[in-house]
Design brief:
Elements: H1 2-7, H2 9-32, H3 43-48, H4 57-65, H5 69-75, H6 77-100, H7 111-127, H8 133-136
Helix pairs in contact: 2-6, 4-5, 5-6
């Protein structure tokens, strides 16, 4: 099976179409059902009481799907900024895989850029847990304090 996928562009296209359909179904589900009714439980927050860098991402994605970008930014500012970059990477990577069957995209991404993003995510995760005014804005829904 893996050999057939490696050799056949049609098989890779079919697999990518199935993955896109599953992602579309997940987006439709999130569009129709609010995560505030049945919130996604963050294990890190449940155990420690601290916000992880992803806390508020489900509500932010729900807001983006409904065109409410300010709400999304208030729930998780970093994820709202990084989401277009992540989406662009996924699309480029899948198109490259469908056409060539290989991975030519990852070699073109600078390691210093990825390291910088990782450091920014870790710093963001630390800063959003400091209970002093400018840092409380980074907590989920924190920007509503000034808006």
């Amino acid at each position: 099976m893996a050999g057939r996928i490696r050799e056949s562009r049609k098989a890779r296209l079919g697999l990518a179409a199935c993955a896109a359909a599953a992602a579309g179904a997940a987006a439709l589900y999130l569009y129709l059902f609010t995560p505030q009714g049945v919130p996604l439980v963050c294990i890190f927050h449940s155990i420690t009481g601290l916000y992880c860098p992803g806390c508020g991402a489900g509500r932010a994605c729900y807001s983006i799907l409904h065109g409410r970008f300010l709400d999304a930014f208030c729930y998780n500012p970093l994820m709202t900024v990084l989401l277009p970059l992540i989406g662009l990477y996924i699309v480029a990577r899948v198109v490259d895989w469908i056409i060539t069957g290989g991975n030519h995209i990852d070699r073109k991404i600078n390691v210093k850029f990825l390291t910088g993003v990782l450091i920014a995510v870790v710093i963001y995760g630390v800063l959003r847990n400091i209970p002093v005014f400018p840092f409380t804005l980074l907590a989920p829904g924190g920007f509503w304090q000034i808006l």
